[in-house]
Structures are given as C-alpha cells and as structure tokens.
Amino acid sequence: MQRRHVTAAVACGAALATLAALAATPAQAQAQAQAQADWPGQPITIIVPFAPGGTTDIVGRALAAGLTRQLGHTVVVENKPGAGGTLGLVDMQRTKPDGYRLTLVPVGVFRQPYVQKVNYDPLRDLTYIASFTAYDFFLAVAADSPFKTVKDVVDAAKAGQQGLDYGTPGKFTGNQVTMALLGKAAGVKFTHVPYKGDSEAITALLGGHVQTVVATNGIRSFMDSGKVRLLAVAADKRLPAFPNVPTFKEAGFDVVVPSPLGLAGPKGLPLAIVERLDSAIKAVLADPEWQRMMDTHGIRSDYRDHRTYADFARRHYAAEKLVIESLNLNE
User: Fold this and answer.
1) What is the value of pTM for the model shown?
2) What's the number of domains the chain is made of?
3) 189: domain CATH number?
4) Beta strands in the chain (DSSP E)
5) Residue 178 and residue 113 share a domain
6) Burial class (CB in 10 A: 0-12, 13-18, 19+), 193
7) N or C: which terminus of the chain has fewer CB atoms within 10 Å of its end residue's CB?
8) Which long-range contacts (CB under 8 A, 24 or more apart) does 298-301 make?
C-alpha cells in the first residue's frame, strides 16, 4: 500500500513539472523572440583564428568595422591562433547561440578531421552565416633570394636531401596543401615549417629562418615595398591585383587551391539573427571602406548567402576527403 502511494506521488510530481514546463514555454518563446527582435543589444565578438597582422586578421578587422557601421553596435575582433585555424570552431562548441560571439571559418576546418583526431564536426557544430572573400595562396621568397621561378625552387628541392623548407600559418592549411600539391606534381618533397599566422611566417622569411613561404593576400604590402618576390599563385588564372604574378599552371604545375572565407556562429543560432547578419555582410561588401581595404591588399570578394554557404560547407567537407587521400600532410 505504501509503495502505491509513493508511485502515485512521483507520477503526480512529474505531471505537475510537465504542466509547469508547458505553462512556461509560451513566455520563454516570447522572451526569445523579443531578444532576437532587439538583437544586437550589446557588443559582438568575431574570432579570428590566426595571429594578428595576417590576411585573415586584416579581413576580420575590416569586416568588424563594416558590421559596426551596419548594425549600430560595436563589433570587435579576438585573435585565437593555433591548431591550423580551427580554434574559432572549437570555441563555438561552448558558445551560447545568441549572436554575440561568432567566428571566421577558413576551409582548413573541413580538412583537419581527415588528417587528425578532432573533437568537432564542422557541419554539426556551426551555423553558417555567409562567405564574403577568398584567399589566394602565393609562393614567395625574400627579395635577395636566388630563386626567381617556381622551377628554381623545385630544382633546389631535388638537389637537397632533406628538401627545401617553407613557412605557412599552420599545419593542414590551404597554404600547406599548396606546397603538398606542388611537391606531388614535381615529384619532390618540401620541409614544412608551421607558424601561427602569415605575419609570423613572413617575418621568418625576412629573417632568413625559412627559404620560402606560402602566404595569402596580405603579403602584397611586402611585395610593393620590395621585400619579397612572389613566384606563383595557386589560382586558375592571374589575378587583377597581381598581374605580374604567374599561376602555378603557367609554370607547368597543376596547383589550384580555392579557399573562401566566411562567418559562422554556434549551432542553433536563430534564423532571424542569421538573416540579419547575412544582410549586413552583403551591405559591407558594397561599403567604400571595405572596397579600399580590398584594393590595398589585392583581396577578392566571394559572397555566398547563408543557404549557399551551408551547402558549400557540406559539399566541400566531402570533397576534402579526396584531396587528403592523395596527399600526405603529416610529413
């Protein structure tokens, strides 16, 4: 008899808890809807998953400034370099989906799960907002280097037992893929020296610590000042901002590495906030301040809305498996 009373009490308590939850749900939903309607109501942080001074940092700060103008609230940058540009995604796993903490997404996040054990899923753990620009990858040497062409670099790697070295912003980045593809096409091995960003890799090049680097568009200022020489770009055709830089294909090596850069938030980011951000990013791309930055650094726009960007993420994640199977990025 006592057991029946206990069972009934537990059942009654559960029922009351359920009713209380149901009663609170409309109020909670209304509060959430109001919060989304009032968004943004405080500063927003964008994580740049590379060190300050590189192309991603330059672009991230320009985007933050443009979004500040578009949204009417301060947008700031937080640098989290390391782990091949994936620390922003890792951060999103413990971020509340309220639109106040976001991250830039380099395509390396789709590559790393195939080359090492990771604790994230790039499709499950992110809400894709928009892509807005694309990296280009340049093989560069110091101005006083004896290398004048890609062939010179390849020949030097063939002559050296340990392989010629090159700096990048980190393992498994598009920068490393560029040289891995060149090595495969030329039948040579290069020695990879990873850094935390383009700026660190370029500093190492200028200091004589590495013989070459693969850097992105932010290297243009070093080219313009005569400090570095760009030997080739991993694009399918010459870029308007770099008309004198040949493609790897022109040099006789089939090396093309597409690499759009976008903005994402944690999973569960409300559609209303996603659409607001997407619209604001599109407006930033037409902002004269943004365009001046693009022209200065030779960066290209590459816009995808939130639906197209999410579709790109799904397709590119699958495609990276084929790329990785043909390369050994752990060398």
Assistant:
1) 0.79
2) 2
3) 3.40.190.10
4) 44-48, 75-79, 101-105, 126-134, 138-142, 164-168, 190-194, 212-215, 228-233, 260-266, 300-304
5) no
6) middle
7) N
8) 298/136, 298/217, 298/220, 298/239, 298/241, 298/242, 299/55, 299/58, 299/59, 299/133, 299/134, 299/217, 299/241, 300/133, 300/134, 300/136, 300/239, 300/241, 301/132, 301/133, 301/134
pLDDT digits (tens, 9 = 90+) for 300-319: 889 999 999 999 999 999 98
Looking at the structure, tell me whether residues 130 and 266 fall in a common domain.
Answer: yes
**E strand intervals along 63-169:** 75-79, 101-105, 126-134, 138-142, 164-168
pLDDT at 324 over 70: yes
pLDDT in tens, 164-202: 999 999 888 899 999 999 999 999 999 999 998 889 999
For residue 81, give the CATH number of its domain: 3.40.190.150
Cis peptide preceding 169, ω within 30 of 0: no
Token output for 288? 């004269």
